[in-house]
Write a structure and sequence with these properties.
CATH superfamily: NAD(P)-binding Rossmann-like Domain
Structural class: alpha/beta
Largest sheet: 7 strands, parallel
Helix content: 40-55%
Oligomer: single chain
Number of strands: 7
CATH architecture: 3-Layer(aba) Sandwich
CATH topology: Rossmann fold
Number of helices: 8
Amino acid sequence: MSRSVLVTGGNRGIGLAIARAFAEAGDKVAVTYRSGEPPADFFAVKCDITDAAQVDQAFKEVEAEHGPVEILVANAGVTRDTLLLRMSEEDFTSVVDTNLTGAFRVVKRASKLMMRARTGRVVLISSVVGLSGSPGQSNYAASKAGLVGFARSLARELGPRNITVNVVAPGFVDTDMTAVLSDERRAEIVAGVPLGRYAAPAEIASTVRFLASDEAAYITGAVIPVDGGLGMGH
């Protein structure tokens, strides 16, 4: 049966790969995007997840097109990397507002109808950085670590309604965001990855799709690293 899937930040990188994975499985896929061009293959809604009114409107449009959202993937995120003493209040709060509070906004809106239907799948995209930390990314790491506590609290809260809430924590993924790194920096990163390479976006997407499948119906509150072993021990 084709399910209604919403992927936030689904116009590029990991989000786009996730959207494609669900579409290939026959699901009805909608994506949100804040800037740039919307992907032509999906029902796309422009939405800034830092604005609750825009989030509500985006859901109304998706619900009208595909029905209530049955699978939500909270993927939208931003970075503003800099060392702590150079980090402004706005550098910190804007990242947290998008990556963590933005996830709160979309999950709260989706869970309303999931609870009524007594079923649903929520997957939050965190990061290995949220588990192990990274210099110059205290804002990003804090926001991504926050998703873990958020998800585990919701797993307990929403579990009685047959709604699972899980976290996927990617490592370094071969996307436009990492393509701008110098060859030297890329080599440094790969040297710390036991598998010795970056992930392909499709490898993150397949894990997300698994968590939304019937085979994963008894998995909730989990944090699944897809990082080539980079974050082992965390």
